Amino acid sequence: MPGAFLLPLLIGIPLLGAILVMCTPKAEYTLHRGIGLAVTTVTFLVSLAILKFFDSKGDGYQLVFDAEWIPGLGAHFKTGVDGISVFLVLLTTFLMPLTLLGTGKGIEKHVREFIAAMLVLEAGMIGAFVSLDVFLFYVFWEVMLIPMYLLIGIWGGQRRLYASIKFVIYTMAGSLCMLVAIFYVYVQHAHVTGVYTTDLQELLQVSLPYHAQVWCFAAFALAFAIKVPLFPLHTWLPDAHVEAPTAGSVILAGVMLKFGIYGFLRYAMPLFPHGAAVWAPAIAILAVIGIIYGALVAFAQDDVKKLVAYSSVSHLGFCALGIFTLTTYGISGSIYAMLSHGLTTGGLFLGIGYLYERRHTRRMAEYGGIWKQMPVFAGLYLVIVMGSAGLPALSGFVGEFMTLLGTFNARDTFPIGHADFLPYPRLLAALATTGVIFGAIYLLWMFHKVFFGKLDKAKNGKLPDLSTRELAVFIPLVVGIFLMGMFPRPMLTTMEPAVKKFVSDFDRRLTDLGRESDPEGLPRLYGTTGPVVPPPASPPIPVVPVMGDTP
Amino acid sequence: MSFEAGDLGWLVPYLILAVVGMVLVLAEAFFKGRDHTSLAGLAVAGCVASGVASIVLVRQLAGSEQHMLLGSMLVADRTSYVLSALFAFTTAACALISPAHQKEHGWKIGEYYGVLLLSASGCVMLAHAANMVTVFLGIETMSIGVYVMTAMRRRSRRGNEAAMKYFLIGAFATGFLMYGMALIYGASGTLSLVEMPAAIARTHNPGLVIAGGFLLVVAFGFKVAAVPFHMWAPDAYEGAPTPVTGFMAAAVKSAAIAAMIRVFGTALGGDITPFGALGWASPLVVIAAITITIGNITAVRQDNVKRMLAYSSISHAGVLLVGVCAMGLGSSSAQASLVYYLIAYSVATMGVFAVVSYVGSRGRERLLVDDWGGLASQHPGAALAMTICLLSFGGMPPTGGFFAKFYLFKSAMDVYSGQLLWVVVIGVVNSAISIYYYLRIVTAMYFRDSTQPMAPTRSAGLLFVMAACPLLVLELGLMPGFWLKLIGG
User: Fold this and answer.
1) Which of A236, A406, B48, B371 is deepest in the core (most CB within 10 A)?
2) Which residue of B has its CA nearest to A142?
3) Which residues does B332 contact at the CB level (< 8 Å), separation at least 6?
4) Residues whose CB is less than 8 angstroms from the CB of residue B57 and which lie 6 or more positions away in sequence, other chains included
5) What is the pLDDT of residues A67-107, one digit of tens each?
6) The dihedral of CA B268, B77, B173, B190: what is its sign?
7) Do A249 and A303 meet the contact criterion of CB atoms below 8 Å apart?
8) What pLDDT score does B331 carry?
9) Is A317 in the B-facing interface, judged by CB distances under 8 Å?
């Protein structure tokens, strides 16, 4: 396949860069920053080449690279992108150089190790987005963890020890549950087909018994829900964000949270459609609770960084809600909202970093009237805040609007026979919409307290406006937010085939298999009487109402 | 019994270790009061020769080819040679760490290297064992050497206490081992592990076999430090000199598991009875689950690095027992996965204990976690080596420990109708707990400032082990294919 080498290259460049930077002398901070910036920029440019090879009308995986990795286990080094993941990869490579450029004074010790950690993190994130093999995905998923742990723990704030260990334990607990489910799927697949493989597309050929799907989906969902984070599992996020250095916060919110949603789309829902059907109402309700709860708690914060952290809980709630609508609108909107959130929240955290570098506080009460001192910064920041709040013509609006529209119409456009997939979609949409209003309120309130009002704090009297370097970080972000808000069509049309395929595949897998694998009995573990469920035949089997409803 | 000189060719790895060990004991007489580094050099050379011989011999074998040697007392196959090479590696690493540690902590005893290699030869004999008699001989040769080495710091009261405990408990366990073997012999009429399945199938006394199996579970439980037979381990690990602790944790435990592969996997395993492989598997699974859990939970509460590692090695023993059960219950990939786990575990263990002996010096071991503060900023290489090895223990990709756990749990899930699913869940969930205490050390090294200046032990051998083990751990995780081919998985 043309361009197949691109994705492994994208993983390899940052890794080589990390090794390179570790080989340089310890005290050459400028050199380290230079290498970091150069490597991430090259990665970004290479990632742009993906678009050249990517066929925006194709609905399958493209640029697929497949090499056998561990023959005995059937693990492959298999990478590829489709309309769902391609922009997430670009978001990662786009944010990375900006983040490194944006962290100036914030990181003053161990710069070499900092750059190396960031580069390893980038490789891990790209790898997790492009893997098409569960084993490979799990490896990259965990590879992301340690650099972020080090970022928080070494370069973080006062309570960094607590925050870093909490982050790791939360994430590990979830991902280990996922690992058990991976084992189960993997061995089950081998028992049915006689071939051991961790290739995602192969695993999708075998469907698990009903109860096994419910449990395996729960295990995957736990890992992803912690990452998103969904409402009761979000407590690690404010700690991690507040204690992380600016670069860590930007990447954590800008990219890493997206793995939760992406994981649902790529792994949990296709592998366990029945599990998804069972858990969808719970997840959707938790997502709506998260939207409102995150917004309300954000409103109560005095620490700007904590406010943005809780706003992430709220915004990611929209994304989680969107994918469980199972409509093209909802899912495309969810992906779009993730991309927009990456830009806006990245910008918000970078801006807070700039303020912190100047004033060494993040308390809103310490600010006020900054507009007069830093007009350029304030103007650009206003765009980012508005983008985050979902003002029309800026990026945040498109995604949230589509998500809400998808949710509202969920019942009408629903795949045949699954009308109960999402309960009370209109009520959920109405409740979620309040989150948009709250979002506008707390963000504008934050902007008001920091930038407007009287300049009554003496320390705020002589704040320099943005330097050229800081401008160079902000302008691409602001341009991106504008472009995404005004011209959503190119991106959405590129996503559409893949999203449509996702919905139709999901529908087919849900109806084809019906509930034939005895929902009443205990989960049959392994194929004691031959294959548990025959692999789905390509012509669709007559539609069987799954959730007990007649269409 | 027949003796054929040709058989000795297959036993070169064993013979080299045994002969060099005896030469070392004699040579020590001529080195009285002089530097022992050259003795260590000879020991390392012996280990390297033995390891190379193992690798050469394993390449002579095709697939699952087996050679019965010396009247079927010993067997030569892939598992035995790969494990022999592993024991040679572990012993060499131990001998490389030791001279500097002896100098800094004042326990220069020349016999040490001789005893070390003789003990290692016991390990290799276990890897080759094909008869209850050779299992017993191997265990005793190995254990007696380790008892002596534990007590090598004669002036240390802790060391003496540790050695005494270890010896008494070990002798006690030997009794169980002997009795269990006797009962099984009584029921089956054979001591050969290869003939045993057929002999047991003909027995009129299944009760004796089951009782014997229980006694063997207890005996091996003591040897691998499985809960509730683990009480000696933390004290022995703490009291023994650090290189010896490394040898105990890596080689002795691996050798005991190697013997279990032969005894439980081959002789008492298989589909002889519908569930439980003659009754020993069900208690062993429960013991494994308890061992993993108790080992990890107790490790969380430790402030002493060596004790923490002792409890961590207890929990690893639990994971290995899961593999033994899987093998006994007929999982085809269990043997290879056990061998892989032993490789990954032993390499990381030697790396970790190399760093532990690097950190201490001049009679002070710096064993408290708090003493490790600021290691990363003063000695980044050592901190990185420790981190990689600890992450491998915790099963984080892309280290060997992750792949080892993945492969072993996969083989446990392979067991027909999934009886081991619950213990796999326990094992995987425990990884999260283990990550917590492994990261305590990482946190101390990277995130805390040092309380006092470090004056680590430096020697070329020690630094070599500290560099080689983490690299090998990463290699094991990134390219497991090569090793799987070697093991025959």
Assistant:
1) A406
2) B397
3) B411, B414
4) B10, B12, B13, B76, B81
5) 988 887 889 999 999 989 999 999 999 999 999 988 866 77
6) positive
7) no
8) 85
9) no
Mind listing the pLDDT tens digit for each residue in A123-147? 999 999 999 999 999 999 999 999 9
Q: In which domain, by residue range, is A32 found?
A: 6-509
Q: Classify the complex by whether its ipTM is higher than 0.85, answering yes or no.
A: yes
Instruction: Place A414 in a pLDDT band, splitting at 50, 70 and 90.
Output: low
Q: Confirm if B245 and B306 have CB atoms less than 8 A apart.
A: yes
In the predicted model, what is the mean pLDDT of residues A314-337? Answer: 91
Q: Which segment, A240-249, A356-365, A515-524, is predicted with the most confidence on average?
A: A240-249
Asked whether the beta carbons of residue B397 and residue A168 sit closer than 8 angstroms, the reply is no
Is residue B18 scored above 60 in pLDDT? Answer: yes
Distances from the Cα of A221 to the Cα of A155, A213, A421, A539, angstroms: 31, 12, 16, 30
Q: How many residue contacts between A and B have a Cβ separation below 8 Å? A: 93
Q: How many domains does chain B have?
A: 1
Domain-located, residue A549: no
Which residues are CB-neighbours of A345 under 8 A, at least 6 positions away? A250, A253, A254, A308, A311, A312, A315, A388
* Exposure class string for A127-150: b at 16+ Cβ within 10 A, else e: bbbbbbbbbbbbbbbbbbbbbbbb
In a domain, A530, yes or no: no
| Contact across the interface for B397 and A142, Cβ inside 8 Å | yes
> Please, are residues B402 and A142 in contact by the beta-carbon 8 Å criterion?
yes
The CA–CA distances, whole Å, from B257 to A409, B341, B451 equal 61, 11, 41
Tokens representing A146 are 């340690």
Contact A183 B397 (CB under 8 A): no
Q: Which residues contact B334 (CB under 8 A, 6 or more apart)?
A: B265, B323, B324, B326, B327, B408, B411, B412, B414
Note whether residue B38 is domain-resident: yes
In-domain check, residue A250: yes
Q: What is the pLDDT of residue B202?
A: 83
- Whether residue A535 is contained in a domain is answered as no
Residue B309 falls within a domain, yes or no? Answer: yes
Measured at the CA of B442, the angle between CA B439 and CA B448, to 5 degrees, comes to 120
Q: Are strands B67-69 and A75-81 parallel, antiparallel or unpaired?
A: unpaired
- Joined tokens for residue B122: 């016991």
Which A residues in the span 177-216 are in contact with B, Cβ-Cβ below 8 Å? 177, 179-180, 183-184, 186-187, 190
Say which residues have a Cβ less than 8 Å from residue A124's Cβ, sequence separation at least 6: A140, A141, A143, A144, A147
User: How many Å apart are CA A65 and CA A81, to the nearest integer?
Assistant: 10
Q: How many domains does chain A have?
A: 1
Residue B380 with chain A: CB contacts under 8 Å: 113
Kindly state the tokens that stand for B319. 């994971």
The per-type count for chain A, helices as H runs and strands as E runs, is: 22, 2
Rounded alpha-carbon distances, angstroms, from residue B234 to B119, B239, B302, B369: 21, 8, 10, 16
Q: What are phi and psi of B64, to 5 degrees?
A: -100, 30
Contact check, Cβ <8 Å, A183/B416: no
Q: What is the pTM of this model?
A: 0.91
Give domain status of residue B1, yes or no: no
- Least Cα distance to B77 among B258, B217, B219, B311 occurs for B258
Domain that holds residue B297: 16-487
Residue environment code for B336-375, b if the CB has 16+ CB neighbours within 10 A, otherwise e: bbbbbbbbbbbbbbbbbbbbbbbbbbeeebbbebebbbbb
B406–A154 C-beta distance less than 8 A: no
Q: How many CA atoms lie within 13 A of A325 on its CB side?
A: 35
Q: Is residue B270 part of a domain?
A: yes
pLDDT tens digit sequence for B268-312: 876 555 444 567 888 899 999 999 999 999 999 999 999 999 999
Binning chain B into helix, strand and coil, the percentages to the nearest 5 are 75, 5, 20
* Cα–Cα distance measured from residue B298 to residue A501, given in angstroms and rounded to the nearest whole number: 50
